[in-house]
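[Meeting: bench + compute handoff]

Bench side (C.D.) handed over the final construct sequence. Compute side (W.E.) agreed to return the predicted structure before the next meeting so the bench team could plan truncations. Sequence as handed over:
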Amino acid sequence: VSLTNSSSSSETSCKTTAKADIVLLVDGSWSIGRLNFKTIRSFIARMVSAFDIGPDRVQIGLAQYSGDPKTEWHLNAHPTKASLLEAVGNLPYKGGNTMTGMALNFILQNNFKPDVGLRPDARKIGVLITDGKSQDEIVVNSQNLRDSGIELYAIGVKNADENELRSIASDPDEIHMYNVDDFQFLLDIVDDLSVNLCNSVKGGGGLEAPTNLVTSEVTHHSFRATWTAPSGPVDKYRVTYVMVAGGPTHEVRYL
């Protein structure tokens, strides 16, 4: 008999009491265009909606870059989800070139700082969204972020360079790197990205497992299972078991 707890994939809600400081780094270069930038706003809104926003939970800051990076708001600027979503809806479109390396260095020097909301006991996560190949050096600047304990996600759209995205993103790439052919497909990956981000916020790369599984009152047709719950909130449990005589694996979900 095996036992796990699982999150419902149908609702992208990150249920955790963990603290995380997330900085979004958004490409605002001319190649994106105003219409596609509206899609980026919708994508960001869907992503941040998954989290419990607050000074003792998840904080989200945002910087936009093209030729020169600019902080749109710091980590501690929006202590409520409503305030944060309003800021996302009003995010202006910058325009310019694609200097991703400069922008990566900018968020390290300006956004991941205690005087603008960075907390010593929070996980540090950076999320890059870009549509093109950088016009400057990115390897050293992304490495400096990772060396500072910042977990990096890289999301590429349309003309983004996949090798460049891989060099920016933390390992493993399967979790931290996304590349889609057009802006409309961003909304197809937002739920999967939110789940991975949630696991990064929680730490340990996944859900905490229940422990001390005990079976009792075993008959030919039934048994009782008890266990110790994990410390964090749980959506549901999944119990899988196999008959001693063999046969298929059975699964039971407890809501």
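W.E. noted at the follow-up: The first helix runs from residue 34 to 49. C.D. will use this when planning the next construct.
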